[in-house]
Each structure stands twice: as C-alpha cells, then as structure tokens.
Design a protein that fits this description.
CATH class of one domain: Alpha Beta
Number of helices: 20
Number of strands: 23
CATH topology of one domain: Diaminopimelate Epimerase, Chain A, domain 1
Helix content: 25-40%
CATH architecture of one domain: Roll
Largest sheet: 8 strands, mixed
Strand content: 15-25%
Length: about 575
C-alpha cells in the first residue's frame, strides 16, 4: 500500500469536486435569469454531469427529476450564469497578496500621505529594519488621498532610511521607492529612462523615487528576487499558497472563469504549475505579454484556445499606454491638471510606435491568434484603430478573431463607428465612473471628456458587443461594482457623470456573462443558461433586475458553482 503525503490545501483542491450538489440536481424556488434573448427567466434549471439539461417551467422539469436528483431550493435567491472575468490579473494579485494594503476608502484606510507613512512605519516596526528586509505596499491612490499627489522618496525615507520600501500605485502603472530600495534595485542617480517608461526627478534633477510604466514593471520584477519564497505552513510553496488565496477572492465574487491579462515572468510559471498540480478550480484564460514572450510565440500557438487542466492560452496582451488616474495614459489633448514635474502641454506617452505595433500584431493575427490591447487615452485608442484597420485592409485581421480594446477610458464619440467598422470588442473598466469619476472630472480630463469615459450606451446603440471588467488587483475582483457604475453613472461624491451613457441592468449583466463568453470565444459553452452548456452558475441574494439600481453595490454572492459543483459558499 502506497501512502501519499499531501498538504491540506492541495488535498482540498484535488478533491473539491466532492463538495456541492452532486452531478444530478435541480434548482428552483427563486429567480433564474437565463441571459438568453427571448427567454428571460425560468422557474427551474436541471444539471447532470456538469452540464445543463433543462431550463424552463417547474412542471416541465419533473421529467428530469429522479430519486437521485438533489433538489436545490434557492430560497428566493437569484441564479445567473457564472460571471466571466475578461480582464484581470490573478497572478499579479497573488504576487501582491502579502503586500501592505494601502488602498483608500471604500476598500481601505490610507486617505493621506500621513496615513501611508503610519502603515509603513507599523510594518517596519513589526518586521524589523535593515537592507535585507524589503517592505512592499500596494494600492495607494493620489486621486483619493488628501494631498492629491504621489508620495516622494524623501517621505518614504522619513519612515526608514535602512529598510527598502516600495509602494505601488492603485493603477499598477507607477510606484515610488525610497533611497534604500533604489540602492537594493541598483538604480543609480544617473539612470536613463527605459523605452516606454520614466524615472521621476525633482527640480534639482534628483530622483524623486517615482517610477512610471516600464521603469515600474522592471523594478517590480527585480524586487521579486528579494522577497521571501519560503514554504507556507501548508507545505505548499508560498507562491502557490498566495495563488490559492487569490483564486478564492475571485470565486467569492461569483466568477467561474478567471483571466490573467498580462502574464509575465514568474506569473507564467505559476499558472502552469498550479494547473499541472490540479489547483485551478475555475477555468483560467491567460494573455501573455507579447513583448516579454515574443520569442516563444510559436510554442503558445500550439496550445491556442485549448484548455489543459483548466488553463487556456487565449491570445497575447499589448500595453499601448498607461493609466488615466495615474496620468500616464496617452491623450491627444493635455491633462486638465498635469502631474508634478510636467508642463501644461503634457499628454502622457505611447509605449509603441505605429510600425512596431503593426509588425507585432501582424505576426499574431497571421497565426490566427487574437489580442487584448490596453488603450486608456484617446491617442492610444486612435493608434489601435489605425493599426488594426490597416491590418484588416491587408487581410491579416478578421473580426472573427475578436480582438479586444481594454479599458477604452478616454474614448471619443467618433471612436464608436470606427470600433464597429474594424470589428473589435471594447471592454470597459466601468467602475472608473464610481471610483475615480470625480478625479477625472476635476483633475484628469475635465467635465466634457470625463462624461464620455466607458461609453457603454453609445456602443450598445451602435450594435457593438461590449464587455466590462474589474482589472483586479487595481480594484478587488468585483464585477457588481462595474454593473452599478455602468447603470447609475454616479461618482463617489454623488455627481452624475455622463447620464446619456447609462445602460440597463440587463445590458450590464450580459456584459459580464454572455458577452464576456463571446469575447473569449466560449459563448457555445458559457455565459447563458441553455441546454448543453456548462453548469457554471452564481447565486445572488437579490435579483438585480427587481431592485433600486442605486443599491446594486450591496448585492452579495451567496454561492459560486462550476460545472454543477460548489466552489464558494458565503
């Protein structure tokens, strides 16, 4: 008899399919929202062997009920297709899960630079100081903090001159390091800006600690080698333990398909390791950063659009510009208030030239592989439209590839027809309206441009299929806040920002279910309740279609179900 030594989390992951309703179940006594045009709601839904076998009336469901069928009483809850994450960063979230939480309200408590310093000082006191004890914090937000600016190297030095400290901006596109961290990462005073990134400097041309775009990403990748990699108490390596914790967060927000939207470096190894060990509970689609993985593109192509142990290579990711709230997005018109150290004509900056983006996308599309393009500023959106239009005219891009424009924040009305013409899918970061709408209005874009961020209604009226995402860990993996934001278009202060761009609750729910399934080429098996589709489901405590839209942020996930098996229960 062979005895296996298996850690508890791994054991639970390997046998999680034993938890739940069983392979034969019927759901009833609640609202069942099918997301299927022409059907709307149903009274009952039957599941067998992980797939939906019936959707319809309670009376007609009786022929699918046997002595072995588990009857699942919804107790007036609401059953929907499992939410689909079309753009998040689960490996980044796992990498930051042990970082200090520097988020402001409503998710955290760092609402000023003094708050930030206090949290950092507490960590230094707990961990001890010294050049080998780096402190990493994540989520500070100058848009919300009282000073409305980034902290400086000197302000972090005031916390500790000996402990390396780095704090990452809420957007993930910038960070600030203290002097000890600059030394640890070997960043000298005369460092040159990398392509697609910059190092901030003060009026005396001295590094102020701020790192933007590729300067930030390079520093974070270098920092990972200095962070502890000890095994957790479970016996799993700490990176896998952290991944499992991140996965639980996604499941708690009702997502049965998870996205890793810019897989790089150790993240790729982490996903493959988790998949090979059977640790993926949900399906995971990943989009490797093209520039970082260009040399291996043929290897990726061999597994395109095919799940292996719940992991699917779904295309490549291109990051064309930065963050609007971090003021690194590429605009055609200047920022309303430029960031510190920038002049009144500052418009952000591109990551790629047109020709480089053209050649890279041509290589991808010619292999039948799709792409996600991170485009926040209107200049970046213009570039993506310009390049893809050229590739479409030359026969390299076809709408069937379903390339996606990610974020599309600073969109203009003239973009709508162009997006429809070239046949790409806009995926809106709609939570921006609520979380950063006031900042866009008063500092980033001004009233007119801010009113057209995430223009979902314009897309809908033009007949464009659109989706919405949460971009976690920029925000928690919370798609209901995206639904709330797109339906109400209200900011934190209560300002209505672009009332004409409001959409219905049903349209918003479709954006995170059936439309999302379409974007990742899985509408045949996910996104709606239809006989033969996977039984990927979420149970909510309230019916989003039958409540005051202002209360949508209060809707809670009660249960997340993947192929008929419960993965999360509140």
């Amino acid at each position: 008899m062979k005895v296996f030594n298996v850690s508890l989390p791994l054991f639970l992951s390997l046998c999680f399919f034993a938890y739940g309703q069983g392979s034969d179940a019927v759901y009833f006594n609640g609202t069942i929202l099918t997301m299927e045009d022409g059907q709307g709601t149903a009274q009952a839904l039957a599941v067998k062997d992980g797939r939906i076998t019936f959707v319809g009336s309670w009376d007609d469901a009786q022929e699918f009920i046997t002595a072995r069928t588990v009857r699942v009483d919804l107790h007036n809850g609401t059953l929907l297709p499992g939410f689909i994450d079309v753009h998040g960063h689960i490996t980044s979230a796992a990498g930051m899960i042990r970082a200090l939480d520097l988020a402001p309200s409503p998710y955290g408590r760092v609402n000023s630079i003094s708050d930030l310093q206090a949290v950092l000082a507490e960590a230094v006191n707990q961990k001890g100081s010294g050049p080998t004890v780096p402190i990493l914090g994540n989520g500070y937000d100058d848009a919300i903090m009282a000073e409305h600016r980034h902290p400086t190297r000197r302000e972090l030095d005031a916390v500790s001159l000996s402990s390396p400290i780095m704090v990452v901006h809420a957007s993930g596109h910038a960070s600030v390091a203290n002097s000890a961290m600059l030394r640890l990462l070997d960043i000298p005073e005369d460092v040159k800006d990398p392509e697609g990134g910059s190092y901030g400097r003060d009026s005396a041309n001295v590094l102020n600690g701020k790192l933007e775009e590729n300067a930030c990403f390079e520093a974070l990748m270098k920092l990972t080698s200095f962070l502890p990699k000890d095994s957790a108490a479970s016996g799993l390596p700490s990176d896998l333990e952290d991944f499992l914790r991140a996965q639980e967060q996604w499941l708690s927000f009702g997502q049965t398909t998870i996205c890793d939207g810019r897989t790089m470096g150790v993240g790729l190894d982490l996903l493959r390791k988790a998949a090979s060990m059977g640790l993926l509970k949900a399906d995971v689609v990943y989009f490797p950063d093209y520039e970082a993985n260009k040399s291996a593109q043929d290897d990726f192509a061999a597994t395109h659009m095919r799940y292996e142990n719940r992991l699917k290579f779904a295309g490549f990711k291109f990051s064309n510009d930065g963050s609007p709230q971090g003021k690194t997005a590429w605009l055609t018109q200047p920022y309303l208030i430029p960031p510190e150290g920038k002049g009144p004509d500052y418009r952000g900056f591109p990551i790629f030239s047109d020709e480089r983006l053209y050649e890279d996308l041509k290589a991808v599309f010619s292999k039948g592989i799709t792409a996600q393009l991170h485009v926040n500023g209107d200049a970046a959106i213009d570039q993506a439209i310009r390049v893809i239009s050229r590739l479409k005219n030359e026969g390299y891009y076809v709408p069937g590839l379903r390339a996606a424009l990610i974020h599309v924040q600073n969109s203009r009305p003239d973009h709508i027809a162009k997006i429809k013409e070239i046949g790409v899918i806009p995926s809106y970061f709609s939570s921006h309206v609520y979380l950063w709408g006031d900042w866009h209005y008063s500092s980033v874009l001004g009233p007119q441009r801010a009113s057209f961020i995430s223009p979902a209604n314009s897309a809908s009226k033009a007949g464009i299929i659109f989706t919405m995402h949460h971009d976690a860990p920029v925000t928690p993996p919370d798609l209901m806040t995206a639904v709330f934001s797109s339906v109400n278009r209200v900011t934190r202060s209560g300002r209505i920002l672009g009332a004409d761009e409001r959409i219905s609750v049903l349209e918003a729910l479709k954006a995170i279910t059936i439309n999302a399934a379409y974007q990742i080429h899985e509408e045949g098996s996910k996104g709606s309740f239809k006989t033969g589709k996977l039984a990927d489901m979420v149970i909510l405590d309230k019916n989003p279609l039958a409540m005051d839209p202002k209360d949508l942020r209060g809707v809670r996930v009660l249960e997340t179900i993947k192929e008929g098996r419960t993965l999360y229960r509140r």
